[in-house]
What does this fold into?
Amino acid sequence: MPLEIIAMEQVKMMANKLWGGRFDKAADGEMYSFLSSENVALDTALIAYDIEGSLAHVCMLAKQGIIAKKEAGEILSALAAVQKKAGEGKFSLDPALEDVHTNVEAAVTAITANGKKMHTARSRNDQVSLDTRMYMRVAINEVSAALLELQASLLELSKKDCVFPTYTHTQVAQPASLLFWCHAHHCEIERDLERLSQLYARVNECPLGSGAVAGTTWNIDRNYTAKLLGFSAPTANPMDSVGSRGELEAELLSHLYLAMAHASKIATDVILLANKRLIVLPDEYSTGSSMMPQKKNPDPFELVRGKASRMLGLYVHAAGLLKSVPSGYNLDSQESKYALLQGVKTAEQSFSILAHALPLLKFDKEEIVLELEKGYACATELADLLAKKGVPFRSAHSVAGGIVKECIAKKKFLSALSASEVSAVAGVKITDAELKEAVSVDKVARFSAAYKIPAASAHAKALEARVKALDAAHALLEKEVKALVK
Ligand code: ARG
It folds into this structure.
């Protein structure tokens, strides 16, 4: 995504042809560059959607008799020519034309003068809202696919199941298993996917026909354009449609932030456990030091964590645009495009990197057992064993705490205790087998039996259905366009 400000020392313009009727002087070059140079760079991501939206709009204008079928046919074939050029990457946006909407209209009008009729009954305000919703639908689907890939990589990783530590307050807590850890993160991502699915339904309403703010008195058919573009329905209120630009973007970024926070948690666990030498980092996803030859650094994992912070910034940026603006359309909302495009790219890259790196992790089981032993990770099990023998839990907790204190002083692990020692301190009879069962850190099955990662998330099906619906709409639009282009 090209984000650089295009150098435009001075864009000297005649009073703009698009809206210049009531102006005497040309727009100031610096002002124009401020408005448009970054904007057209961002709008490049919207070209395909803008053209598709125009195809549907023109089909509707013809169907409603607002323009003649012959005129529509000419506009549609000009749009198809621009679409082809854009598909080949040969359609670049001119900042002097402000945005993608005007660039497309100008390109069409250069092919056929009927292009001047294309903008009947719409505004760039409903157009940009349409384009960004269409972009967001694809983005939500692509990010969901990346999250599903991350879930699949957790499933893959869980096949290396072994005993695994858990922590609270970054201190060793209780033993668990690698599967248990993978399952926990799988659950987090399931919620991320659910949030995205729910948002998709809100995004999937068509604002086209809302006009600048108050709709239009032309006899348009909003249901028809909504259908041609694969939306579930038209939006309900024109002022809300143009005025809520940025809201869905902020919502998406907030969901992406939560998903990035989950990715960051996974990455941080990997960093910390590699630091303790329990995890061996894959060569393919680590870097070295330019000075210290022995180093193997978890750079991509750190960068995922760093990018979670960027995502929070992008969310705050988009959310901030929503307050203090009055009803209707305001150009402040143009700023949400930057946050949206950056956020989607950042999320996709981060989830993909993690998905590829995780299955390559290796585990040092001896070190893991040592970590758990050193952390007296089975002390809760020991207290529970005493409680099961009739000692009130609070007293059992105290006895087990005393045993841990003693062990620390004697530099001894819980697994080295004898049943007679424990029985004597606790005042209840414990057998060797019972004690062993309680204080063995490596009973993997015990920690894995209850957790199963599903082979396919329910959200994979929902994603498939959404993609299918978009494909079907594409086919329908193509059919309608063909009927008019002779
Ligand atoms: N570039 C604008 C945006 O992204 C498109 C709508 C412009 N509308 C206007 N009245 N200036 O929001």
